[in-house]
Amino acid sequence: MTSLSLVQNRTRRLSVGTALLLCLSLLPISAGVTLAADPAGHTVTAPANGGSATREYTGEVPPGTGGTADCVDGVNADLYTFTINPLPGNFYATRDGALRFRIRWSPTEPSDIATQDLLLRVEAPDGTTLDSDGGSPSEVVVFTEPIAAGEYLVYACAFAVILPQFYIGDVTLDIAPKDAATPNPPAGPDTGLRFGPIVTVDPQRDVAEPSLRVDGDGNEYTCGPFGASRAAEYAQKSEDKGDTFRVLGLPPEGRIAPGGGGDCEISVARTRNSKGYFTLSYTGLAALVNFSTGRSTNAGRSFIGNAVSESPVSVDRQWMDTARNGDVYLTYRQIPTGSFVQRSTDGGLTYAPVGTLAIEEIDRSGNLIVDNRGGAQADDVYIIYAFNGNVMLAR
């Protein structure tokens, strides 16, 4: 039996005017116009020893409207076929498998997802049908093992399309050897891992979503937002392995920089600065509008603050990391464009203006990590994020 790994199905409403235009667009396509996937289909053999088989194609969806049960090739949908060659009856007894179908598109002018919106429908050889209708310019459905052999009908269908819409499709079949099951694994040796008593980091106030870093001297730094209405974050430092903490920043409250109050993030340098300390860098989200920034070059004894980080408006959940040479990388999600990355060459006080969009397809942003093993070469920067139910990695 085929099981569903991912399905998004969301009902949306169209305005009367848009609906009327879309109804008119259902008129027959002019003679001589042929809409078909290119190529029309692929046939693959599942890799018996494990591995992936990926096929790509392109197509164009004609104008029209529809739903997950109303996809008709050449009327309001474009059809592609994906065929898996016959498999031995016991193929999945020793193997795991996943079959992913995806379509992506950039809305044809007027570049509005509400009037250039596609859905994805896949009909499996055994009669199982999966749909994806998430309201974004990418749709995905996934079948998990046992995956039926035979022909899969893949429809890129018009949910609400006024103009012909070009799209890119791809299919990936993943096969991996099944791990040997160990129902009751034996208990491992006692590693001696123990936690001490709970310590209250800041008895003065409650904060949310804290961040934690440890520098090369073993100093522990924490940071948490106090609320956008207060426009403040507060940071603390421990010099005794977390037994006690003291509040950092400007007295009497301990604010690091003007602004902030939303998400709080800190990072520490990997090498010592000219004063012999590990530079501590800070950003604070200011009511989804911008980021305040701060830098301490003396282990948190004092900070220089800045209210603007050169980021665009409508931003959320930032992440930071510092490279060996002291450059600080800042990433965040900008709604609705995607994820940007900015770099600071002064320890996180100021950042270069926003440049190229790093990640367009993003639902949930994850943290940023710098690989400092590059020696004299440039450091690799990695970002983990979620999109359409998948965990993705950008480098």
Distance between the termini: 37 Å
Q: Count the helices. How many?
A: 1
H/E topology pattern = EHEEEEEEEEEEEEEEEEEEEEEEEE
Spatial extent as radius of gyration: 26 Å
Mean pLDDT: 81
Shape: globular
Work out the oligomeric state of the chains in this entry. single chain
Stretches where pLDDT is under 50 for at least 5 consecutive residues are 1-34
The proportion of residues forming helix, as a percent range, comes to: under 10%
Task: Spell out the blueprint of helices and strands.
Layout: E1 3-6, H1 16-24, E2 41-44, E3 51-61, E4 64-65, E5 77-84, E6 95-104, E7 116-123, E8 129-132, E9 138-144, E10 150-161, E11 165-177, E12 211-214, E13 220-225, E14 233-238, E15 246-247, E16 264-268, E17 280-286, E18 290-296, E19 304-306, E20 315-322, E21 328-334, E22 338-344, E23 364-371, E24 380-387, E25 390-394
Parallel strand pairs: 2-5
Antiparallel strand pairs: 1-9, 3-11, 4-10, 5-10, 6-9, 6-11, 7-8, 7-10, 12-13, 13-14, 14-15, 16-17, 17-18, 18-19, 20-21, 21-22, 23-24, 24-25
